[in-house]
């Protein structure tokens, strides 16, 4: 009954949106992936598992959709920050940082191979195996192709901070958020720089034409409201969650959209 009500609410919100991008098929609470301060860190391209962390990005866990079980990958600080999943979903790369007296003492890049069940220390992250890599270092974007790194700064670098950066699945476009201005999409060379929305936060690509993001509001002290919203590059917008749910940090792939609420509950939305 509760699941049915959630689905009906989600569908109602879908129809009330300015344009329908998705049809919401179901909305399921994932108890095993819900815990205090839970945050979704990533989803495999095939949509067969989630990566979970906390609001402070401490620790990294893997939730398997088929078995509905959680496996701990790391308990280290920062392990859930900018996690990378290979395009085939077999490799997960992350960074462990060790602190002592508040100072970072060790940084270790690790790569998990799910098929071989191995973990190795690597000098570079798994994403560098891809033909195109989007990097973000201290709020500055770089595109790396064939070992050559190029600065990507559509608005320049003077007092500009680029966050929430994401590379499109076809590796031809970049989505980013510029502090004080909004969410933009541009080509790899910075051309065709287009404003998506000032309210499009933490956007991730669903496909090469659609972004999934959160639209959150705060009172200067804490978040008071947040919805999961879909945006297309041609200007369509659709709110996917109900206003009574503070839904945050979505990830999406293969007909699935996952997100966590402010109280640590994790949900899986199926769409088409």
Briefly, what is this?
By secondary structure, the protein is mostly beta strands. The chain has one domain: Neuraminidase (6 Propeller), CATH 2.120.10. It contains one helix and 23 strands.
> What's the overall average pLDDT, rounded?
88
Q: Give me the count of strands.
A: 23
The helix/strand series, from N terminus to C terminus, equals HEEEEEEEEEEEEEEEEEEEEEEE
CATH-derived architecture: 6 Propeller
Ends apart, CA distance between termini = 23 Å
- Structural class of the secondary structure composition? mainly beta
Radius of gyration of CA atoms, rounded to a whole number = 18 Å
Physical arrangement of strands within the biggest beta sheet: 1-23-22-21
Number of helices: 1
- Contiguous uncertain segments of 5+ residues: 1-5, 10-17
CATH class: Mainly Beta
Largest sheet data: 4 strands, antiparallel
Helix content: under 10%
Tally of individual domains: 1
Relevant CATH superfamily = TolB, C-terminal domain
Shape from CA axes?
globular
Q: What share of residues are in beta strands?
A: over 45%
CATH domain topology: Neuraminidase
């Amino acid at each position: 009954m509760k699941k049915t009500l959630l689905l009906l609410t989600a569908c109602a919100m879908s129809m009330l949106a300015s344009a329908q991008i998705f049809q919401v098929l179901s909305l399921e609470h994932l108890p095993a992936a819900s815990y205090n301060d839970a945050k979704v860190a990533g989803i495999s391209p095939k949509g067969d598992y989630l990566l979970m962390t906390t609001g402070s990005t401490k620790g990294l866990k893997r939730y398997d959709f088929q078995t509905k079980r959680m496996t701990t990958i790391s308990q280290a600080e920062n392990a859930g920050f900018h996690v990378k999943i290979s395009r085939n979903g077999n490799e997960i790369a992350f960074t462990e940082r060790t602190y002592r007296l508040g100072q970072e003492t060790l940084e270790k890049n690790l790569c998990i191979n799910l098929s071989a069940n191995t973990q190795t220390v690597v000098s570079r992250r798994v994403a560098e195996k891809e033909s195109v890599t989007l990097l973000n270092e201290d709020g500055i974007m770089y595109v790396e192709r064939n070992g050559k790194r190029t600065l990507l700064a559509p608005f320049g670098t003077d007092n500009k901070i680029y966050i929430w950066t994401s590379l499109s699945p076809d590796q031809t476009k970049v989505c980013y958020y510029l502090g004080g201005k909004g969410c933009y999409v541009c080509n790899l060379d910075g051309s065709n720089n287009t404003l998506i929305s000032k309210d499009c936060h933490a956007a991730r690509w669903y496909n090469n034409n659609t972004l999934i993001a959160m639209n959150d509001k705060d009172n200067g002290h804490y978040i008071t409201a947040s919805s999961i919203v879909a945006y297309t590059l041609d200007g369509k917008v659709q709110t996917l969650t109900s206003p009574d749910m503070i839904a945050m940090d979505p990830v999406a792939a293969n007909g699935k959209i996952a997100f966590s609420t402010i109280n640590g509950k994790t949900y899986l939305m199926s769409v088409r």
